[in-house]
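so i finally got all the pieces together for this one. its three components total, 323 residues if u count the protein bits. some of the lines might not be protein, just check the labels. i wanna see the whole assembly predicted at once instead of chain by chain like last time, that was a mess tbh
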Amino acid sequence: MDGKIKFPISALNLNYTFNGGQAFRWKCLEDNSWIGVFAHRIWKLRQDEEYINFEAVKSSNTPEEDEAALLIDYFRLNEPLNELYDEWAKCDPIFSEAAKKFTGVRMLRQEPIENIFTFICSSNNNISRIKSMVEKMCTFYGSEIGVVDEVKYYDFPVVENLAKSSVLNDLQKAAFGYRAKFIQQAASKIVEFGGHDWINELKKLPYDEAKIELMKLPGIGAKVADCICLMSLDHLEAIPVDTHVFQIATKYYLPHLKNVKSVTNRVYNEIGDHFRTMYGKYAGWPHCVLFCGELKIFQDSPTEKRKKPEQLKPKKHKKTKVS
DNA sequence: GGCCGACCTGTGAG
DNA sequence: ACTCACAGGTCGG
């Protein structure tokens, strides 16, 4: 490994953080290390009790940087997570319960362009297809960073590449469906608005104004805009209200919304405001912890199935890997 | 301003 | 094998 950061595993859980619906490019390898891309590098991460061990591969034309600092920024390691958990637990017994299992969930600070186009793909879509679409964008339009374990890794494409007119046809052929048009058009608009300067403005604007700006892009409605605000623009009070969050809200906090026909703008804002009133400025973070509790991927693990008895049905042809 | 239906396509449960 | 609802929603009427 290239380096290590002294950081307890109790305050960063890579599994919950990477599989909690924030990012779509991280993969867990058989030796329990994680491999993924950000900051123009291929990262291999491996934790032990005390340290985050890391290895970073970059292309020859990528400038040197303090790579530990890049990790600290990406994982927001300077945020005292245990203290924050304590605060949120005081505000909310439901959080307190979820926090017992979901420790070390960190809001990543992702790259806005990647975040924007990933979440345009996410709408009305399933996780595995979202992942494959993101990888397609990277291999089609991203530059190769390097090879690790005989696998090529690509950077997320620059926005100018996604704005090209040929992208529409390419992505339609690659089965992107109606999102092909959203991607090409959104990229064009971002370039038109000023590219990275526009992105940087969004970070400086107040949350609600940044959200309005984002919603000028095709394929970005309230929910996706909130994902982007929360995950890559440092607006941690954003609460993306999707089907899962709606379920959580009606089950635990706002039962009167149980039989609304659809999540209208009014309902959407009521749910977000409820979380913000409860938790304050960082509301999106504890929301993310609660969200983990709703995800299928984190349920029914053999050691802790206590949710639904009917899921104890015998599984056919289930092969268990023995390591 | 709120509500409703259509929407590309792959995945996974039945 | 073969449906068919659904997937971290958005858009236009």
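The radius of gyration of chain A is 20 Å.
The mean pLDDT of chain A is 91.
anyway lmk what u think
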